[in-house]
Design brief:
The chain has one domain: BirA Bifunctional Protein, domain 2 (2-Layer Sandwich), CATH 3.30.930.10. About 30% of the residues lie in helices and about 25% in strands. It contains five helices and nine strands; from the N terminus they run αββαβββαββββαα. It has a six-stranded antiparallel sheet with strand order 1-5-9-8-7-6, with helices on both faces. Strands 3-2-4 form a three-stranded mixed sheet. Strand 7 and strand 8 form a beta hairpin. Helix 3 packs across helix 5. The mean pLDDT is about 95.
Length: about 200
């Protein structure tokens, strides 16, 4: 996925590809940001492998995080010259999109001063870690829908020791299916960034 992001990022920078939004679920993996603290990974590589969890370094910002099934991962590839060439503005914009989605589910989601991401009742439900190269974005967000929350015990999520993590499944009587969450995120993303609807895929 990293190679695909970089390929599309370079094409967007060259003007040969449109703005892109990748939506996916990862197989279990712990990722390390550019400035992550190795001590925030609480299990050895061998212990993680025994649990089927990979360990990978990335080019994003932020510290240590976890991705896995039941978690929506979104990788926007955007030329910020079309909006605002500001790293801070882009982070806050991604938070705004997530807030729109979560409030649509009736959750009292918000920001927490001094931290990046989105929170509900003091627990982190969505993490953000991005990269920007030549003002084109890559990496992005992770929203906990219904992942295996025990995997977060293998790390200090985002390097924050005194804040819990949560998920839609923990906060709602029934978490929406991933397909709906992806659709809702895409709609909120397109509305915020004023992007047109996707063109229909022609029948084979």
């Amino acid at each position: 996925m990293m190679a695909l992001q970089e390929e599309r990022r370079d094409a967007v920078a060259a003007g040969t590809a449109p703005h892109t939004l990748f939506l996916l679920e990862h197989t279990p993996v712990i990722t390390l940001g550019r400035k992550s603290n190795p001590a925030h990974v609480l299990s050895s590589k061998e212990e993680l492998a025994a649990q089927g969890i990979a360990l990978a370094e990335t080019g994003r910002g932020g510290d240590v995080t976890y991705h896995g099934p039941g978690q929506l991962v979104a990788y926007p590839i955007l030329a910020l010259s079309a909006w605002k060439q500001s790293y801070h503005w882009y982070l806050r914009s991604l938070e705004s999109v997530l807030l729109d989605v979560l409030r649509g589910y009736g959750l009292n989601a918000g920001r927490l001063e001094g931290f990046t991401g989105v929170w509900v009742n003091g627990a982190k439900i969505a993490a953000i870690g991005v990269g920007v190269h030549n003002w084109v974005t890559f990496h992005g967000i992770a929203l906990n829908v219904e992942p295996d929350m025990s995997h977060f015990q293998r790390i200090v999520p985002c390097g924050i020791r005194d804040k819990p993590t949560t998920s839609l499944a923990a906060l709602m009587q029934s978490a929406p299916p991933m397909s709906q969450v992806m659709d809702d995120f895409e709609a909120a993303f397109r509305a915020y960034f004023e992007l047109p609807d996707a063109a229909p895929v022609p029948e084979p």
